[in-house]
Amino acid sequence: MQIEDKGTVEPSKMYFAMTNEFAKKALYYVINSGRFYCNTNYQIRRETLDSFLFIYVKEGKLAIQYDGRSFVVQSNSFVFLDCHQPHMYRAIENRTVFDWFHFSGNASKAYFELLYAKNGCVYKLYEQHILLNLMERIIKMTEEDNVEEHLASIYIQQILYELNQYSNPSDQQMEHKIKQAIAYMEDAFQKDIKLEDIASYVYLSPYYFSRVFKKSMDSSPIQYLINYRVNHAKKLLHHTDLSIEEIAAECGFNSASHFITTFKKNVDMSPKQFRAIFF
User: Fold this and answer.
1) What is the C-alpha separation between 27 and 31, in angstroms, rounded?
2) Both 177 and 159 in a single domain?
């Protein structure tokens, strides 16, 4: 089926699936699916829709707003949304390509809540993941108007299983995410970044990210960021003639008074006293 939604371009396609009553009662089932090629005019904003949504971004980027949070979805990333809640997604690159399908089923909401609490709604894939193959199989079924409902239900269950496995990463994968988070903080420490920004950067929920970061680093992410800012301030105090106000701004503090209070709390002396010490 050709698409006329604003922002979609050729060769975008959408397909619909017919579902019997047994599938609606007992299985996960596909509602519709497609592959969209979009420019930056593409945007979907809904208050509610009676379905859940999987998206795989093949090229470009999507911006997503859900549950009061904002996400930027890079290429080779997977998205899981509960469309019963208000949500928005839009293309933010002029060539953005993504596969998608809406589905439902009795356990869909419970699975979404389990996974969202662990990981949020975006999953960055690091290789050719089995999720891509499962998505393609389901879209092909709907394209050919030949949805084997029990098999489609198995594929959806397997996608949910794989997302749950992703949400329980190995020690090596988690170490990589923590290194990414640290690099992000050290690169952006001069900006007004929050826990939600850091967690979103590594595609984890703030709660889960805080827990694993503290376990690994023996410090909360925000305390790590504060320590990095204070350490940078120490260097500026001793190696430059910048004023306290200038150093506060240079180190990401929103005011000189906030900087002085934070510095004193962490160093047991004021910035002025620290600057007077001869090393």
Assistant:
1) 12
2) no
Q: Considering the domain boundaries, does residue 1 fall inside one?
A: no
Do 61 and 121 lie in a common domain? yes
Tokens 């795989």 appear where?
56
pLDDT tens per residue across span 152-201: 999 999 999 999 887 776 677 788 889 999 999 999 999 999 998 998 88
- The H or E element that residue 66 is part of is strand 62-66
195: left (phi over 0), alpha (psi -120 to 50) or beta: alpha
Is the pTM of the predicted complex or chain greater than 0.90?
no
Cis peptide before 11 (omega within 30 of 0): yes
Give the DSSP letter of residue 168. S
- CA 27 to CA 215: how far, in whole Å? 39
Count other Cβ atoms within 10 Å, centred on residue 8: 20
Distance CA(80)–CA(216), nearest Å, equals 28
Tell me: pLDDT of 3 over 70: no
